[in-house]
Amino acid sequence: ERVLEIARRLSRGEALGSGDEEEEGCRRHREPLEVFCKEDGALLCAICRESRAHRAHTVLPVPEAVREFKEQIQARLQTLKDDREKLLEFREAEMRRNW
Prior knowledge:
Elements: H1 2-11, E1 21-22, E2 25-26, E3 35-37, E4 42-44, H2 46-49, E5 59-61, H3 62-98
Antiparallel strand pairs: 1-2, 3-4, 3-5
Helix pairs in contact: 1-3
Protein name: TRI27 protein
GO molecular function, one term: zinc ion binding
Domain B box-type: 21-62
């Protein structure tokens, strides 16, 4: 659920999570949000990225983070579709057996 919400917000260009950002950029530094911190699930400006709070964290450029989340969502969606198909087949087989 969290990955889906992050992907939705990133694709809409919305800021995420840390409270240090707004639509136009970082509130603290008035810099553009350029990277995504995987550990905190937040968009960061270059200055925040170098702060102690995020320095050791894994960060990705925003377009790469969006691509990564889309791939994860697509893979999970395919798994759900496959599971649904199996359940429908099982249901149909059970209905035939009961007839």
